[in-house]
């Protein structure tokens, strides 16, 4: 029972930090108006504290619970200081018409809650089972506790596969151990469920400003029902939190693109930094989102995407310096410099053909992601005339990562068929969850376009 009390305390820390930012940015200043933002506050606090913990570990600290609480206190004070310079502005949520649409919204909400309840029941009795989780994600987290930080000696953090991955995921897992009072992987799925529930709540409150409830809740229910998302939840694989951080970063970026509310850009920066510190491809997603915003924003608004890119790069620089200082080798899977070796690429052109044939089923599989990708692409095409910037943003966010994954499989040294078979179901996660998260926004804009045209 004590471990569950510890998990509650950890989530209270996350909630307080996130609540301070929600209040500081003026989304809500009274308790009644804050309640809808509870999920957003918790997941923002998780992103901020997790990023701070990763940076503290990189700096050579132990990442103890006391250090995490001290970092949370600093973040809370800094966030509340924003109340002096940011005026509160309430966000109006889209009303739901009465009648059949109300029942549709209620049905979607009911399915969402029932699925969360089913996932909670599973989390109480589940344990991480994925091979990658046991081979390096969990050992890294355990080593942080046992070695009091990131250690390069035998058995330490860098003893395991993918030692160059940034430390966000092992850092937050180690915090769960420390607040629970023991290293027990059986308690991790419950904490992952809490973050997932907060993720859904965050999407709900962010999208409700433009998406009617009868579109929003059925869409969120479908996201939770995606088989591969279900399978990923509680797995302790880095792709699990990465998919949620990338999706929230994309949603806040898309909303900023439509509304030019710079408070959304602040939230976006928190999620992009978290993504950057989660896995190597997190930086690629962060820079892509910033680049797409820069390409679609107008005039002086270019400052925001430049700032998003800068803060993401700044977040990863200490880790890159640490890797070089400790002579940690680069991930052997591929070398980006191979893209400049034309003979190397030509010799392996058959691998590109294999990737083009075998990858799409993983991304467009009904049995994995339902209709997440094709539906997002279709809706982006529908709104291209009315919301060209939003359509371009979504299409770019789908096309560029997909193309990059093709290139990765082309240049990697691993056997191509084995590599796709063992990784494509995970690498597709961030892109699929991103698509599922922006789909309700695209649908709402498509419906708004129809009404505007008299349809």
Could you characterize what this model shows?
The chain is mainly alpha-helical. The protein has a domain of 300 residues. Helices cover 73% and strands 0% of the residues. The chain has 21 helices and no strands. α5 packs antiparallel against α8 and α12 packs antiparallel against α13. The C terminus is likely disordered.
Find the structural class using helix and strand composition.
mainly alpha
β-strand percent reads: under 5%
Which percent bin holds the helix content? over 70%
Overall geometry comes to globular
Descriptive labels:
mainly alpha, about 450 residues, about 75% helix
Brief account:
The chain has helices at 2-24, 31-34, 38-58, 65-80, 100-125, 131-146, 168-180, 188-207, 213-225, 227-232, 239-259, 262-276, 280-296, 303-325, 342-347, 349-358, 360-363, 366-369, 372-382, 388-411, 416-452.
Write the layout of secondary structure elements.
Blueprint: H1 2-24, H2 31-34, H3 38-58, H4 65-80, H5 100-125, H6 131-146, H7 168-180, H8 188-207, H9 213-225, H10 227-232, H11 239-259, H12 262-276, H13 280-296, H14 303-325, H15 342-347, H16 349-358, H17 360-363, H18 366-369, H19 372-382, H20 388-411, H21 416-452
